[in-house]
Write a structure and sequence with these properties.
Helix content is 33%, strand content 28%. The strands form four sheets. Strands 1, 2, 3, 4, 5, 6 and 7 form a seven-stranded mixed beta sheet that branches. The chain has a seven-stranded mixed beta sheet with strand order 12-11-10-13-14-18-17, with helices on both faces. Strands 8-9 form a two-stranded antiparallel sheet. Strand 8 and strand 9 form a beta hairpin. Helix 8 packs parallel to helix 11.
């Protein structure tokens, strides 16, 4: 009856016999997994998990899971019950080695679609279908993330609250400035003229870079894996009256068409938190021929001088040979750092030619308390950050 009540606004269950299907919990449990959320014995929600196809499989391919009949009781609405059930089946999808999970939904089920989007689902229009005449269903898919991406997503969803005020400051800034020390673009001059360009920001976070470019005539699209960071970005859009698309997705698997952009950009987004081969390949796919890639990340020397705890020191504490994934004991996130030769080789493998490498130092008067992982004294002697510019052939 919970499923029947939840679906009543969208389907004429009694007329087409679907009410009997929704009520047949025993039948579903015999061929799939029926999960419930309850509190003190009160049923708050349910979902049917179809990990291996079978009688309840509808649109899943051989390596995918599927879910059906997500329903939340009135007592559970607005409490995150639906999201909790979905997170459970996403975790199970990963645990069982499925490549992802799919579902079908009616176009009118917009509240459910918003939950899907927050959890990283994207539309899959090529699998839209009609089970019976007059009933059109649209498809959604969620792709299982690699371990480093899951860890970084979880880390940034927690850290996001600490970046609301920095986002507000950056959105309010009138000039483009790079990195930790706000080095002015007027000094670096790494960006091409952006007026009229289609731009994708890979790992946009709160999307302040996209905002800067939009004010200069670009048409930006932001992509980020943290739903909480995107919530801040949307709040900033509303505050500033500046709208552009934001997609909840990994920069390693962007749900946007090939050859759609003139400029791909990342400031401490994909450039730091994504596997270099994966996100550089996506940047190459997304860019038109002759398109430009610009990204900022920590410098090689800063990474080699960064201990497990505390700010960068005046000696090498990491090996350069084999440098790639870097973790710290007090942080579950995974950073990616390459030696310069590896960056050049990676860019070259994906069809890019390096045009410039800018090394950024702390300016005079930099705030010594601003960041715990580097001091201005250190960053005035050695570059703490670097900006790469490359062009797609």
């Amino acid at each position: 009856d919970l499923c029947v009540a939840a679906y009543a606004p969208f389907v004429d269950a009694d007329t087409d016999g679907y009410a009997d299907v929704l009520r047949d919990v025993a039948g579903r449990a015999a061929v799939a997994e029926v999960l419930v959320a309850e509190e003190g014995g009160e049923l708050l929600g349910t979902i049917t998990f179809v990990p291996d196809g079978g009688a309840l499989g509808e649109i899943a391919e051989a390596d995918e899971a599927e879910f059906r009949m997500l329903a939340v009781a009135p007592a559970g609405q607005g409490r995150g019950v639906g999201a909790a059930l979905l997170r459970h089946v996403l975790d199970e999808t990963v645990r069982r080695g499925r490549t992802g999970i799919v579902c079908s939904s009616q176009p009118a089920m917009r509240a459910a679609h918003r939950v899907y989007e927050r959890l990283g689902f994207h539309r899959l229009p090529e699998r839209d279908w009609s089970p019976v005449p007059g009933v059109d269903l649209i498809a959604f898919a969620w792709t299982a993330l690699p371990d480093h991406a899951r860890r970084n997503q979880a880390s940034w969803d927690v850290e996001a609250e600490h970046y609301v005020e920095p986002a507000r400051r950056s959105w309010a800034a009138s000039e483009i400035a790079w990195g930790t020390w706000d080095v002015p673009e007027a000094e670096v001059r790494v960006l091409p003229p952006v007026d009229g360009l289609d731009v994708v920001e890979l790992g946009c976070g709160t999307a302040y870079v996209s905002a800067w470019l939009a004010r200069r005539g670009a048409r930006p699209v932001g992509v980020d894996l943290s739903a909480r960071q995107l919530e801040t970005a949307r709040a900033m859009q509303a505050e500033h009256g500046l709208a552009f698309p934001l997609h909840h997705a990994s920069a390693e698997d962007v749900p946007l068409p090939d050859a759609s952009f003139d400029l791909a950009i990342s400031e401490y987004g994909a450039s730091l938190w994504c596997d270099p081969d994966a996100w550089i390949a996506e940047a190459a796919r997304l860019l038109r021929p002759g398109g430009v890639l610009v990204f900022l990340t920590n410098s090689l020397i800063a990474t080699l001088c960064s201990p497990d705890d505390g700010p960068a020191v005046e000696r090498l504490v990491r090996d350069q040979r084999g440098l790639r994934a870097v973790t710290y004991p007090d942080d579950d996130a995974v950073e990616f750092h390459l030696a310069h030769g590896e960056w050049i080789a990676t860019l070259g493998r994906h069809g890019f030619a390096v045009e410039a490498l800018h090394e950024l130092y702390a300016p005079p008067g930099a705030d010594p308390e601003r960041f715990r992982w580097v001091t201005p004294a250190w960053a005035r002697r050695w570059p703490h950050e670097e900006i790469w510019r490359a062009r797609k052939a």
